Amino acid sequence: MIYLDFSATSPLDPSAKKAMLEVMELSERRLLGNPSSLHTPGSRGRDLLSSARKSVANLVNASPNEIIFTSGGSESNNTVMNIFDSCPIFVSKIEHPSVLAPAEEHAEPLYKIPVSSEGVISLDFLKEKLDFLLESSPKKKILISVMTANNETGVLEPLKEVSTLIKEYREKGLKKLYFHTDATQAVGKIPLDTKSLGVDYLTISAHKLGGPVGIGALFVRTGAPYKPLILGGEQENKRRAGTSNALLAAGFKAVAEKSFSTPKKYKEVAKLRDWLASEILRELPTAKILTAVGIEREGTKETIVGREAISSEQSSKGELSLSLERSKKTSRISGGDHEGAQSTAGVSRGALRSARLDDDRNPTEVSRSEKDSDSSQYGKSSNRSEEIASRPSKSLPNILNVSFPSAEGESTQLYLDLAGFAVSTGSACASGDLEPSHVIMSMTGDAEIAHNSVRFSLGLDTKKSDLKKLIKTLKPIVSRLQSISTIKLKEQP
Amino acid sequence: MTKPSPLEKSWAYTEIVKDHFLNPRNFLMGDERKFKADGEGIVGNPICGDQMLIKIKVGAKNGEEYISDIGWKTYGCASAIASTSALSELAKGRSLEDADKITAKEICDFLGGLPEHKFHCSILGHQALHKAIEDYKHKKSPLAEAKDK
Questions:
Q1: Which residues are paired to A399 by β-bridges?
Q2: Which pTM does this prediction carry?
Q3: Rounded to an integer, what distance in angstroms lies between the CA atom of residue A223 and that of residue B32?
Q4: How far apart are the C-alpha atoms of A166 and A363, rounded to whole Å?
Q5: Which of A464, A456, A338 is nearest to A5 (CA)?
Q6: Which of A60, A93, A125, A141 allows an S-S link to A442, with CB 3.0 to 4.6 Å?
Q7: Is any Cβ of chain A less than 8 angstroms from the Cβ of B47?
Q8: Alpha-carbon distance A23 to A252, whole Å?
Q9: Domain segments of chain A: what residues?
Q10: CB-based contact (8 Å) between B22 and chain A?
């Protein structure tokens, strides 16, 4: 089996396995107690926990007392939303369900931030609503939750810009404005620094790093509001009840230490991912790439997302208007040395350059739809996200989301599975609730694109030869599904 | 085979489903117009993720009209493809009256069962066939009336 579903879960890293086996051994030999117990076996458990806490803190440049161990990303996200019960909460429309569902439950009201066709949040929407709150209820506690990177497409959100905006509005009078980011997919893939990001809360999951399933962490900045979700024990400094899990913490520690240096290695994975995208487009030219990737074409590197490959010549001026939101420089994630692809959504490189030149406080607002931000406040509107101006986007190095027209995603996924490849799909058929991916729906407003989407997520050990085999297998599968499909392929350009 | 607990939703397909998914029967590749049919029906909606087209040829034996040939196209998941394939096998050779009585349950049983949340896919197949039969009757009726006169 060639595993290309690392974003769902990563195989257990040998270092985590070794660490956990050692802890199991201790437990079996009666040498490990409940970390809350005062005796020697108990203190061994405490030591394991506190050293794991240090490693996790170090990974995101936090202090150990700012790290709370949880059962994973979902609990961390639920915990944050619970703190802001009955408060205004902002979430992006493409958050993970473990943010969206508790936000629906707790927020009063809930503001769903729309995204561009590339999946990048609208900062203008945020500003507009914050202005309103500044007028109407400046004393309220408010949360803004924007994921670091999306789990389906890998798009990186402009956290730095959100952070700057938050600072600005705090100074204007929204004193109790707080910032959470779900970094579940991003940790270990790109450098993350809670201090330079200016976040108050940050969600981490161990198993996405190659650690065990069942443990994660929540960074809570010292001084940020807190309320435990799970009550009935004094563990985690009274912030999360339940017997501390020294075993899983040891596994978490092992991968947290490794993950500090993995972002550099993922630059190679990004090249491989970009290569895969260009091969897919070569073999299956109707494919739509939904992740910002870099594509080599005739010696020059260009970037695409959200549509078929569009060469510089082909890109029309009409599309240009979509991509020139007030173009600050591409969002950078703390430290910003991630060289992920920038996408231009069909805009020529020349246009991109001019967009960048506009950067310096000379915003070029072009034909932006007003109605979108107004009517989509509660996320129920069906506005096409194309109407929202977008900005050049970047993506995680290891995710590639592709939609194959007329070929339903679950079928593609299962044919690939039977051929020995594990991938994911945004198709409704695979979701259980029979709804297609809310992420791709928010980006494109097109259910077919969502149903037909397939996510390939690579790991550090993914080889080019694996991807070559994938391409060989993928082409006949997709072509066959397309040829028996009731939906006709549009004429190829 | 162990049955998954109700807590673990089963994604697993039976071997028969897999077989019909991997080696679908009677399907139409490419341009479906090449298959000259006496009746056709299409149901479903790509927006919902499933769409099926059924085309039938009608013959007569022993004074009864029957489905002499059937072809189909499907946009959808594995279950949709397999269930349309299964339906085509079930319907081929049957009298129109009998074929029109094929139920979703019959398709499902033929496949050795489908995951519960996938049941809607096979229901579509039988609806498409019903439409194809209706289409045939509709197309035929003026001619039939003319003959009677």
A1: A457
A2: 0.84
A3: 67
A4: 20
A5: A456
A6: A93
A7: yes
A8: 12
A9: 23-259, 262-483
A10: yes
Distance from CA of B52 to the nearest CA of A (A): 7
Q: Which CATH number fits domain A262-483: 3.10.310.30, 3.90.1150.10, 2.40.30.30, 3.40.50.300?
A: 3.90.1150.10
Residue A206, beta-bridge partner list: none
| Of residues A292, A272, A304, A290, the one with CA closest to residue A340 | A292
Does the distance separating the beta carbons of A414 and B78 come in below 8 Å?
A: yes
Q: With an 8 Å Cβ cutoff, is B63 touching chain A?
A: no
Taking only the tens place, the pLDDT of each residue in A37-59 is 999 999 999 999 999 999 999 99
Q: What is the domain class of A23-259 according to CATH?
A: alpha beta
- pLDDT tens-digit profile of B27-49? 999 888 899 999 999 999 888 88
Q: Are strands A177-182 and A201-205 parallel, antiparallel or unpaired?
A: parallel
Q: Which ranges of chain A have pLDDT less than 50?
A: 298-300, 306-392, 492-493
Cβ neighbour number for residue A311 with a 10 Å cutoff = 14
Residues 6+ apart with CB under 8 A from B84: B24, B27, B52, B54, B72, B74, B125, B128
Q: What is the 3-state secondary structure (H, E, C) of A416-434?
A: HHHCCEECEECCHHHCCCC
Which of A324, A349, A256 has its CA nearest to residue A69?
A256
Nearest CA-CA partner of A318 in A348, A292, A287, A289:
A348
Nearest to B85 by CA among B128, B31, B39: B128
> Is B121 one of the annotated active-site residues of the chain?
yes
Amino acid letter at A443? Answer: M
Three-state SS for A36-95 is: CCCCHHHHHHHHHHHHHHHHHHHHCCCCHHHEEEECCHHHHHHHHHHHCCCCCEEEECCC
Tens-place pLDDT, residues A325-370? 223 333 333 333 333 334 433 333 333 323 333 333 233 232 333 3
Helices (H), A146-245: 159-172, 194-197, 235-238
The rounded distance, in Å, linking the Cα atoms of A292 and A343 is 5
A447 chain-B contacts, CB cut-off 8 A: 46-49
pLDDT at B124: 87
Q: Report the candidate in B76, B68, B82, B87 with the shortest Cα–Cα distance to residue B125.
A: B87
